[in-house]
TrEMBL record:
InterPro entries: RTRAF. This is Uncharacterized protein.
Amino acid sequence: MWLEDQKIRFLPIDGREPLRKINAPVEWNRAYEKYKQDIRLPTHLKTKQEEITWLLLYAIRLEYTDNAEQYRPITGAKKLEEEATKSSIPEVQSTNPFDAFDFTSADFEEGSWKLAERLGIAYHPDHLVSLQAAAKVISSAYSKEALKERVITGQPFPIEQGSGVGLETDQDLGQCARILRLLQIQNIRQLQTTINETIVAVQNVTADPRTDTSLGKYTGNQPVNVDDLKEFRSLVSWLEDQKIRHYTIENREYLKQIGSVEVWEAAYDKYKIDVGLPYELETRQEQLTWLLLHAIRLEYSDNVDTYRPLSGARKVEEQKKSNAPEVKSTNPFDSLDFTNAQFEEGARKLADRLGIAYHPDHLVSLRAAGRVIHDCFNKETLKEPLIAGQPFVLVGAADSSKSNTITTSTTGKPPHTDAERDLEKAAQILRLLQIQNMRSMQTTINETIVAVQNVTADPKTDSALGKVGV
């Protein structure tokens, strides 16, 4: 009823009254059957889903025809650009344990440089570059194969210094030439590998059967440039030949003569009248849009059995199960394979370097390493002096028998042995740690309360705006 009253408007206002009697099923069904015959809804559409889909497509075509001026400035390229610049990026769950860190934080920046310094990496003004170099060192120098090799010891290769370029003997020059030759061979191998990967990628693209006419797909450029007369004529001819099929096969020959301007223009003017294209649509963009909508409606009518099992909810579900949208990330660790055995070994070696206890899950050790870098290598922590001295020794039960010294308390309490005094000091330490934990928990509770208040105080139900919710 709403589609007829607001969008289609096939019947006059007085003739729509029977369709508005929604609470009277008998009268409404009789009016709906007559309405389907008047609007020429295809008889082979059986279910309500198919009928409402056909009516929606019909309403879209009429809406575009009635508001051609409004839709004229919106081209396909502009629509794609608007969709590409949307701020609402779909949320993609990542298995990267570093996604919770702020890579622009000053503390993280300082920690990255300290980690690079520990791994022997030269300083770089961009801490993310140092972080990428650290990741490469971990994945290469701490892999199982690299750890099997013996550590190179001894003095560096001696090259005598002198005037000129610093290479005075023929022997030194020969050794340098061999080193450069080996490096050149390595670079050539890497280049050949890149060339092979590029060739495979190009073959995969060129082998895509998008131009197979037996599949019923458009064989021209995608997307179509409507300003190019050749592409416009080619698409119109393809739509009539493959989808619309208003003419017989013999009568389509004039539309296929794309190279002859006069013949094609005359055939296209006649075709617009025969297919019922509204005369209000002046530009190629508007006419092509109408023809595409008309072809979609005919395609749906001809293949109802194919589209019948596909409901709207199932279509949305299938789209969700498809490949996740690509989101470009600035995280330098996204290119690493966290399940790789070499990376697992490198993560454990990094945890050993930072003094972190062993854990069977290397990702847990990696998170702990990130927390140590964030907490122990920031500017404020590095300003504090290092704690030096011997650890506090607690006298055990076995050692208490050796010391029988008894002290008398000045408060009148019973005397304590050395072991009891040590236990009392340990209890005081545990009490201080408990107080610290309670303060941390209280801070977390306060932050949670503030977050809840910010949510509940959000005026999304302002009656002055005339809206409820967002």
